Amino acid sequence: MLGGLHFWFEIRIFMHFIKKRRNKPLYKKFLPLRKNVQNRNKLLWFRKKKWQKFQRAFSRLKKKKLHDPKSYFLSTFKNFFSRKFKYNLQNKQRLSLFYGGFRKKYLKRVVKSTLKEFKSLNKHVTVLFIEKLETRLDTALYRTHFSYSFKNARQLISHKKVYVNNKVVQHNSYLLKKGDVITLDKDVFNFVILNILDSEMWPIPPKHFYVNYKTLQILVIEDIHYTNCLMYYPFWIDFNSFLKFYER
């Protein structure tokens, strides 16, 4: 009798940990942020009843407000410490979700390398941090509308369909430099063309990229400037508090 109870108790514990580790749908991560971080039109067109709560949260958002970098959501909390923690957490979640789900370890590593290089280079810390994220290979494919999401861009890279200076690159975090040329395999030309046609071409590709949509080539022509940084994100993000939080 005791052995049977012990067995069922172990099963309940095992199921409890499985439920915690189970992956939740992507759209549930947007609920606490109250913001369409990835600028997806699908968020406003759910038909199932279980998404009614989600639709109510986003019903007031219009297309004009989706691209307003000055608008942001800040919830109310009891004390200063919980409010500050939630503010930093939402800040991190917005940035992570926008780039397809960066892990905390990767963000910490990027912040530490940014602060080290900042001492030797005459650049603003925020610009240097954004430059490390925006010069990634998967970011370049997403910004130029060659892929409809970061996940799709990473699949193209992992399947050896993307070339940098006529060489296959399989690392998503490959940092591009001025003068680099990105080309694609001919097998994915039709797929990329469909992605470009289906996109709304908003936001417009950054100025440091020269895109030839006939030959499907991307050329890095200049460095990122501070004046263009705010236009890269359709939501509010406090980079100063983010860098201070992950500096530890």
Automatic annotation (TrEMBL):
Record keyword Mitochondrion present: yes
Keywords, in A-Z order: Mitochondrion, Ribonucleoprotein, Ribosomal protein, RNA-binding, rRNA-binding
GO annotations of cellular component type: small ribosomal subunit
GO biological process: ribosomal small subunit biogenesis
GO molecular function: rRNA binding; structural constituent of ribosome
The keyword Plastid is annotated on this UniProt entry: no
Boundaries of every RNA-binding S4 domain copy: 135-197
SMART domains in the cross-refs: S4 (SM00363)
Protein family according to the UniProt entry: Belongs to the universal ribosomal protein uS4 family.
Protein known as: Ribosomal protein S4
